[in-house]
Structures are given as structure tokens and as C-alpha cells.
Amino acid sequence: MPSSARKGIIGEFISYLSVERGLSGNTLESYERDLRQFSSYLARVNGKDIETASQDDIIAYLVYLKAHGRATSTISRVMAALRSFFRFCTAEYGLVNDPTLNLESPKKERFLPQVLTAGEVGRLLEMPGAGDDLSYRDRAMLELLYATGMRVSELISLDVDDVNTDLGYVRCLGKGSKERIVPMGREAAGWVEGYIRTVRPRIAGSKNTTALFVNRRGKRLTRQGFWKILRQYVRMSGIERRVTPHTLRHSFATHLLEGGADLRSVQEMLGHQDISTTQIYTHLTRGKIKEIYDKAHPRA
Description:
Elements: H1 3-6, H2 9-19, H3 25-46, H4 55-67, H5 72-93, H6 118-126, H7 133-148, H8 152-157, E1 163-164, E2 169-173, E3 179-183, H9 186-204, H10 223-237, H11 245-258, H12 263-270, H13 275-278, H14 280-296
Antiparallel strand pairs: 1-2, 2-3
Helix pairs in contact: 2-3, 3-5, 6-7, 6-10, 7-9, 7-11, 11-14
């Protein structure tokens, strides 16, 4: 492969993933970071370019990541990025030997997600109150996040036109820009409706933005901004466990299944491609059933 073709090849690959395969921004960022880190490792260790990497180079790098404490899930993602990259090089640049052929990805460790009890969720959602515009906005965001099980990236990407509080649904774009319609309950719809009608216009001011949730400067709220808001209310609620935006997503799914929802419906609401991803929540509900059995059965 000529050096002119090599210039910016990672950038070309990322553009291909974006345009041809429609991968999400988060996946594109992760893949680009993984590939550039591998490229830097190769240059530092043996002076190679990424497209001249051998299978031994890749194995050595995966061992290096493991030795430096990287999680199995991270190593699996790195392997997925490398596999996709070298397939691209083979198709577009005629790379003869794909070094990822016959290499297996490490098996992912399946950890049960942390979930909050219904009582803990209630305490958390009530923390913002409605004393001022930003508190009202925060309450509407938390209510909507728990009511729909959305990812935080989906929440902050919402536009005003994506929610219909009269019919009680929200339209969001998930991974790979796949659209789905998710219902929301009356409580969340009420808070979001009040926010859109009275609070958002005051926060956004003269800023011409379609964003549903805006920061104090009237611009679309960022992921980092939401994290900061959530941490504040977790501290205020007295919940001592680590709570992330995904904790509310996990709690949403678990509470639905505990309440009798079927797995396929929960899969659709979460936007999971594979039902096996959703099935991890059944482990949690089985644990709840066992707990009830142990307490209720006279010979448990």
C-alpha cells in the first residue's frame, strides 16, 4: 500500500463507518480512539504502521491491555475495531493478509447491572423540586429518563418536536441512528409539558435552538452537564451507591419486568437489537422472586 494511501487511513475508515454503515457518534469516537492508541503502540514498540501490523502484534497488544487492567469489554471493543478496520483495508486497499483472521474476541464478562429500588428512584426524582426554572428542568429530565429508559445521549439529543405529551410518547434516535417510539407515563408527560410551555422559553431566551433540554446559556445540554446535575441530586437524596444515567435505564427495565411486562416489549423500548442483551434483566427479577419466596414460603 503506497504511503500516500496510508495518510489518514484511520480517518477514512471512520468516515466510511459514519457514511456507509451509519454507526453512532459514540461508537465512531471509541473506534477512532482505539485504533489511534493501537497505532501509537505499534510505532512506539517496533516502528510499524497500523496497516502493516501482524497477528502477533495484535495478540501482544491485547495482552498489554489486559496487563494494564483494561476490562474484558474494552478489549472486546478494541478487537471489534481492529477486525472492522482490517476488513476495510482488505476491501478498499487490497490488503493481502488480514491479521485478525482466526483471532477470537475475549468472552465478555457479564455483570449484573446496579439498579435502584422504586423507593430510591422516587427519592431521586423528587430532589430537584420546582422552586426555580433550572430545578424544574432537572425534574422533567429525570422523570423522562426513568419513564422511557433512554440513554443519556438520546435524552440530550431530543428536540422539542420529538415529544408528544398529549399522546404520551417520545421519538428518539438510538445506536446506529435507529429511530424508535417509546411511551412515557402521565407523571413524566406532565413535567415535560410544563417545562416546554413555561420554563424552557425563559431559559432559552432569544436563542434559536430546537433542543428540548437547554443549559442556563440557552444551548443544548451536554452529556457532561447532565452527569454533573445527576451527581448533585444523588448526593442530596442520600443514595450511597454509585448512580449513573445508565442506572436509571437499568432500573426502568427491571421495574417493568418485575411489574409483569414481557421481555420483547422491554427490548423494543430499550432499543436493543438482540434480545439476549435484554435478558440480563431477567436475572435480576429472578433474584427478586427468590427473595419473595424465601420470605413467604413456610419451608423455604
